[in-house]
Write a structure and sequence with these properties.
Order of helices and strands: HHHHHHHHHHHHHHHHHHHHH
Number of helices: 21
Shape: elongated
Distance between the termini: 108 Å
Helix content: 55-70%
Structural class: mainly alpha
């Protein structure tokens, strides 16, 4: 490589002259890097803090092009107290993206600078290295901004080793717990269902919704009892979130989730939701839950609710009640001597098949034009 001390000195002066135009300073930076080799690394790192964005971008591009040889210098510079913006160095390491760049980023998770710790966690989430799982799990104990970023990074990496630490993070501050719930949902491991289900009993509705969304992503039947209880929550958004997860699971998965339980504790909240929930999908979800309980008492609750629903023409809920009744009749032999009615399309509640003792009720509640004509009428 050509070694011309005078030209190198002149290029350094040009680069240091902030009054000069951007193109001239960028050209000087490129030429210096080519002439000086590894000796130019500190100059490139210093240029990342230049006031001219064109110089900053040029320095970043050059560092990325150099690649692994500059990683040790970048890693050491991140921890120097005179480095004003160490997070920029973390970003460059992320753009280099080689395995050698992971180690200094993991060390940066324990740096004194909160901003650097947060950026290091973010970059590790983008790189997704398995070796970063344990340091990121430790970062879950950091202050909220860092721990939230660490939780997201763990979800991006997708390693099951993060499930237990994330479950413990559910007991932390609410904002951290919400981030941990989101990460657990993205990981999709059924081992997190119990911890997420217990989170539904909290009083902060955003955290309850986060837990519902996570359970909806995991789609485990084990979530069934937790979801049934929250259908009576005072917050409508929480009711809606739980109802949507129940509909996502469906009657079969709900039955699987409740099969090994007594379920007597669920009858009252489900009956209350079936009768009082303002959201039709929540009432329908309560019907699914009652059908999945496999309790004779649930059959009486469903039939008691059936009549007023016909009067209201709530066609979006009726089919779910019918299906739940049939499910209970099949599995508990309730009313075994009476044939099970077939389910009608939900779009026309007037055509829903009714047991014999409900026909008179339908004639009394439906409009005159909807009632069948007597056999003698023309």
């Amino acid at each position: 490589m050509e070694d011309d001390p005078e030209s190198v000195l002149w290029l350094r002066e040009v680069l240091a002259d902030v009054v000069r135009d951007s193109m001239t300073r960028v050209a000087a930076l490129n030429t210096l890097t080519r002439k000086e080799g590894a000796a130019a690394y500190p100059r490139l790192i210093a240029a990342l803090e230049d006031a001219d964005t064109a110089v900053v971008e040029a320095a970043e591009v050059l560092l990325v092009e150099i690649g692994p040889p500059v990683v040790p210098t970048l890693g050491a510079a991140m921890f120097r107290t005179e480095t004003a913006r160490p997070e920029k160095l973390a970003r460059v390491l992320g753009r280099i993206g080689t395995p050698s760049a992971v180690e200094p980023l993991c060390h940066a998770l324990a740096a004194p600078s909160r901003v650097l710790r947060k950026h290091a966690a973010q970059v590790l989430g983008e790189l997704r290295p398995r070796e970063a799982v344990e340091p990121l799990c430790q970062a879950l104990k950091d202050e909220p901004g860092v721990s939230k970023t660490a939780a997201n990074a763990l979800a991006e990496i997708g390693d099951r080793r993060a499930v237990e630490p994330l479950c413990r993070a559910l007991q932390d501050y609410e904002i951290i717990a919400a981030a941990a719930a989101d990460a657990l949902g993205r990981l999709g491991d059924p081992a997190a269902v119990s911890a997420l289900g217990e989170l539904l009993a909290t009083s902060w509705s955003p955290l309850q919704r986060a837990a519902c969304e996570a359970l909806g992503r995991i789609r485990s039947p084990d979530a069934a009892p937790f979801l049934c209880r929250v259908l009576t929550d005072d917050i409508a958004d929480v009711q809606r979130a739980a109802a949507e997860v129940i509909h996502t699971l469906g009657a079969t998965a709900m039955s699987q989730g409740l099969a090994e339980r007594d379920n007597a504790d669920l009858l009252e909240p489900l009956a209350h939701a079936l009768c009082s929930a303002p959201y039709p999908r929540a009432r329908a979800a309560a019907a699914i839950g009652l059908g999945a309980c496999r309790r004779r008492e649930a059959h009486a609750t469903l039939r008691a609710r059936l009549r007023p629903l016909i009067g209201e023409r709530d066609s979006s809920v009726l089919p779910f009640i019918r299906t739940a009744l049939e499910q209970i009749e099949r599995e508990t032999d309730v009313l075994a001597s009476r044939p099970i009615p077939s389910q009608a399309p939900p779009s026309d509640p007037n055509n829903l098949p009714l047991p014999a003792d409900d026909v008179r009720f339908q004639r009394e509640t439906l409009p005159l034009a909807s009632q069948p004509k007597p056999s003698g009428d023309p």
